[in-house]
Write a structure and sequence with these properties.
The complex is a heterodimer of chains A (97) and B (387). Chain A is an alpha+beta fold. Chain A is 33% helix and 22% strand. In chain A, the strands form two sheets. Chain A has a three-stranded antiparallel β-sheet, covered by helices on one side. Chain B is α/β, with parallel strands linked by helices and 387 residues long. In chain B, helix 2 runs parallel beside helix 3 (78-88) and helix 3 packs parallel to helix 4 (103-112). The chains are: A alpha+beta (97), B alpha/beta (387).
């Protein structure tokens, strides 16, 4: 199963991990990061790739948001990041605990 | 030269490489997409040839790689090919019946860097599964599915649907849940190769399809986010064709066991192709320069009713093989389209199956199982017909 009952809904204290059943890699020919999974590929824009690279199984969502906001000079990214993580979780790209 | 270069850059480069490593297979599924004349193929290309193909295709940007067959597990160099593919950055898919696999090999594949194993099933019950597969395989397949999970691969289970198992769809999906599949492919039989030969024996009824669609939708909703279920309505029951292979020479590149490059795995039957071989040409030349890969690329080859059709960009006239098999001319519209003058070839067959399903005339007609003996007999019959 891509997700099970132990997966928590996205929220500030949840820790996301990029799913071990998927692969995130840079594709020269596409000039972007892609997610690879059985017989499929999703192209990512730079922001989405950056968020997914933060999903290391250690940082919680709150910290990911803080780190990225710091990196982008305090821009308010909270809503965008939460929305994207929900999509990523819905697609099985990340697991949560 | 600059002109030629810029022209070439407009051709989309292959994303999907399908390596049909062998036609050898312990199973005998009567819907196999391999050519019925597969017994003609004697020599499989060597490990070095495959490795060169992998390197060249990856350099062009191919990302998804399928190892299939036949049964790819029969190739003793499979581990070596997986390791090379993974090191090149491919996402490697092993498409297998599971026969010839054991825990030791699953572990070795993991070590070599294999990303995904797709195990095919023939049905949800032992009896029907083994009847369709032509071998005693069901329990072993279930065991392999469990091991795929144990070693952390994403699990894709593939069931090919047809009249004999279509009504098992609920049991099939329950089996997938029990095995904790991540993805389920409810693959409708495509009527090429052996399946075309057996189409009266395999084509489902309209009522069966309607039922299957309802059940598939129910499970899709119930398991949303947990298990991805792919279900596509077979094109014999549609009135517009599918955009076959997403376009000729656009995304997919198939290499057959003896090294022939094809824009799709069914294209070998089409007349007038030259069948470039990777032993004689580079993958780059085959994709960008060879006459075969240009032949039905884009819209230039079309004639009516496709030519003036406002949907031509959407489906590219459908499948060239289906057009050839059912109308005798690969440049005709795919007869799945209701605008095709040959559309009745499909609707007549669907109606005939609907009328005769359950009667001995249809159900007692023996299926021709996919094996080398039957292939040789078909070849013999065809050559005596043309002689």
């Amino acid at each position: 199963m891509l997700k099970d009952e132990t997966d928590k809904a996205i929220g500030p204290d949840v820790i996301p991990t990029f799913a071990s059943t998927h692969r995130l890699q840079w594709e020269e020919a596409q000039d972007c990061h892609v997610i690879l999974y059985p017989e499929g590929m999703v192209k990512l824009n730079p922001t989405s790739a950056e968020i997914l690279q933060q999903c290391d199984g250690e940082k919680d969502v709150k910290t990911i948001i803080e780190d990225l906001q710091k990196k982008y000079s305090g821009a308010d990214l909270e809503e965008d990041i939460l929305k994207f993580l929900e999509v990523a979780h819905g697609n099985g790209w990340i697991r949560t605990k | 030269m600059a002109m030629a270069g810029s022209e070439q850059n407009k051709i989309p480069q292959p994303l999907w490489l399908l390596c049909e490593l062998t036609y050898a297979c312990p199973l005998q599924c009567p819907y196999c997409s391999n050519p019925v004349e597969m017994a003609k193929v004697k020599n499989e290309i060597a490990t070095d040839d495959w490795i060169r193909v992998l390197r060249e295709a990856r350099k062009m940007g191919a990302t998804q790689l399928g190892f299939s067959g036949g049964e790819p597990l029969t190739r003793p160099d499979l581990e070596e090919l997986i390791a090379e593919a993974r090191q090149l950055g491919f996402y490697t898919n092993l498409i297998t019946s599971g026969i010839g696999m054991d825990e030791k090999r699953i572990k070795a594949f993991k070590k070599a860097g294999l990303d995904h194993i797709q195990v095919s099933f023939q049905a949800s019950t032992e009896d029907l599964n083994n009847l369709i597969a032509g071998t005693d395989a069901f329990e072993h397949k279930k065991e392999m599915a469990r091991l795929v999970k144990k070693y952390g691969y994403p699990m894709v289970l593939c069931f090919v649907l047809h009249r004999r198992n279509e009504d098992q769809i609920r049991d099939i999906l329950d089996l997938c849940v029990a095995l904790e599949a991540d993805y389920v492919e409810l693959a409708t039989t495509q009527y090429y190769g052996w399946a075309y030969h057996n189409r009266e024996q395999l084509l489902p009824t309209k009522a069966q399809l309607a039922h299957a669609e309802i059940v598939a939708k129910e499970y899709q909703e119930k398991l949303e986010g947990k298990m991805k279920i792919y279900y596509v309505i077979p094109d014999y029951f549609e009135d517009r064709p599918k955009k076959c292979m997403d376009g000729w020479g656009k995304v997919f590149l198939t290499i057959t066991p003896e090294g022939t490059a094809l824009p799709c795995h069914a294209a070998r039957q089409l007349p007038g192709l030259e069948f470039p071989n990777v032993k004689d040409h580079s993958v780059d030349w085959i994709w960008n320069e060879s006459p075969d890969f240009q032949k039905y690329r884009g819209l230039g080859w079309m004639k009516e009713p496709c030519l003036s059709c406002d949907e031509k960009e959407k489906d590219l006239g459908g499948c060239r093989c289906q057009a050839y098999m059912l109308t005798g001319d690969a440049t005709n519209a795919d007869p799945v389209c209701s605008k095709s003058p040959y559309h009745s070839k499909i609707t007549d067959l669907v109606d005939r199956v609907d009328e005769l399903a359950g009667t001995p005339e249809l159900e007692e007609k023996p299926m021709v199982f996919r094996n080398m003996k039957n292939s040789r007999e078909i070849i013999k019959k065809k050559s005596s017909e043309t002689a």
